[in-house]
Amino acid sequence: MRSILARSRFSPIVLLSCRGATTAFSSQPTASLLLLRDFRNPTTYHHRTARMRVSSAGTDSWMLPPPSDGEGGRIGTDKCIVRILCLHGKGGNGTEFVDRTLLPLRSLVERRLVDDCIDGDANDGGGEGDNDISIRWESLTAPYDLISNDDDYDGGGYSWWTMPSGVRSYNAREYDGFEASEAMVMDAIFPESNDDIDSAARGSRYDIVFGHSQGAILMSALLSIRGRLWNTAPPGGGPRGYVLNGCAWPNPFGDSLSRVADGRISDIIDEAPSVPPRILFVMGKYDGVNPVESAMRVHDAYRAAGFDVSIVEHDGGHSVPAGKDEDSARALEEVVDWIVDIARRKVSKCM
């Protein structure tokens, strides 16, 4: 059984200094524009010298997260980090999901944060010194090798649980092996096993969790049984938001989700939080894998529970919007808007 937390190969860890950017643009406009051009194409990015500090990391995998960045997601005194945990669908793996499937989304989110920084909207603290933004896309790879565990699937890759032949996640009676995935994801979000992180005080490592297909179903199930994910307030709070792309009803956890919808939450949390997390449902009208109606059941349950839920619908199928046509581009921009809004709110608290 494998547990891998991977950083994206193509996604730069972007450190942006707004005042530094302004200085760089005024003193060296040509070099600064070249820096932006290269940054906006992550596959051809190069380091350049300027006060807009940008660093790019190669592919990294580790069993435990790196040392704590401190309360509020800051390292030292001048960097504000926004972290996104990405959970792939059945048949995928964490690295490929972030590097390929989410490439259009990552590029637009990172570009928007660059533009906001230059315009002074996202990170103008008004004080002395530089305030940097860093956005990090990280991923987990599910524990079950499909070649060994699924007779119906010969495409390789990994899954978060296994099921009998012909059974789907939205009609399964049980998810065999779910507990291992539950532990893997919860340990990544709240890394209590890392001695360098006081997780009880600092809470979630991640600001957003992005789940696709089985990864989205996994999070919809965890939210119904893990009350710690409900609280976004420090200390000890969970992620600020969840993107559930191509989700479906987590059938073995249907009773838990129904209790949540009815307000019967005493078995998972003492009381409903004053500011629950946000959930964005991304649905393809022609999704032939997880029907939209199944995702709407999850949406309606969490809306009834008081979560801040919203929907982005597109004319595609079981996919993450990639902006390949007008409708997909519109949906992609709406997802970017949602993510950037959470990032801005995080940045405002780092000032």
From TrEMBL:
Residues 82-326 form the Serine hydrolase domain. It comes from the Eukaryota. Keywords: Hydrolase. The keyword tRNA processing does not apply. The keyword Hydrolase applies. One of its GO terms (molecular function) is hydrolase activity. PANTHER family: ESTERASE OVCA2. This is Serine hydrolase domain-containing protein.
